[in-house]
Amino acid sequence: MLDRHRENLQALADSHRLRRLAPRAGIDFASNDYLALSGAPVLVEAVHAALDRGVPVGSGGSRLLRGNHPEHEALEAEAAAFFGCERALYFSSGYAANNAILGTLPQSGDLIVHDELIHASSHEGMRLSRADATAARHNDAQAFEDAILRWRNAGGAGAPWIAVESLYSMDGDKAPLAELMGIADRHGGFLVIDEAHATGVFGPDGRGLGHICAGRDNVVLLYTCGKALACEGALVAAPKVLIDFLVNRGRQFIFSTAPSPLMAAAVRAALRVLADEPERRERLSALSAHAARRFGERLGTPPSGSQILPVILGDDARTMAAATELQARGFDVRGIRPPTVPEGTSRLRVSLTLHADSRAVDDLVEALADILAHVPA
Description:
The chain is an alpha/beta fold. The protein has helices at residues 3-14, 41-52, 63-67, 70-83, 94-104, 120-128, 141-153, 177-186, 240-249, 251-254, 261-276, 278-299, 316-328, 358-374; strands at residues 27-28, 87-91, 111-115, 132-136, 160-165, 190-194, 219-224, 234-238, 308-314, 331-332, 334-336, 346-351. It has two domains: 22-38 and 278-374, Alpha-Beta Complex (Aspartate Aminotransferase, domain 1); 55-275, Type I PLP-dependent aspartate aminotransferase-like (Major domain) (Aspartate Aminotransferase, domain 2, 3-Layer(aba) Sandwich).
């Protein structure tokens, strides 16, 4: 009865694509805890203070039943003010939030034009949508406009929805948001910006790369809380009418147990850290610049312009062998293979966080140069 599952897993193993859980070990070059807040005293103290004032660990139900708590509402109000949007809505995860945005807001007769490298959670949302969807070449603004024009010329009469990540999780490059905003405006459309990897790292006070578009009637922004904010959940920021629509039609919100009120209190504290401790972003920016320079000099790796540095090796087996060797030498770097990335682009994803320093980066570069010299291509 289980033979098909065993055969499927064996096929993954044979192609060097079998996933396994691994414990934390070595210097962190794998997590998304970019500002090293996950164990920071300020968040620990915020959680203790919330417990002391009676904030419960669990919510006890969905937000529309008894799960709504003043901490959720306080977070949403503070987040809307912080990010410069009319309203914000707290979801249990970024995956659920992306599902809800693209699965709920675009309507029948609309068109979703998405970047070809957008998150898997966005693809799952589009599968649930009543709107049609089409991919555009990565970071090619003209390709987005061409897709909308073809649709209009074929009789498309609804609204186009442009869906992108502001900072791409596997390549570390940035979307042309100003150009895409112009396209959305010209065609009576909406711009959906997933700020997962830019939240807390870029923009004034860590407000993300999409801060240039925040507060507009045709913009929806998603800020994950589990990366630079080091907590859990995600915030969707948008005009009030779209937030109300998600509350009434977003199944991922309606039928999910509400996030822990205690976690909402922690996210509130993390947002305050972004405003109060700019030195964290400054240190990360300096570390990213140092790493880009060293990887370029020693390995010929092109700069990404962010804290995410992909070292593309292409071959699955070589990628995983290099990752295993790095881990054995005390560097927690993970290999990324298809289908997470396109075929032929397996890579080591080097994620820079404040858990490492410039010396650790230098040591990593030297170790990787040595490994790649003897791991066969």
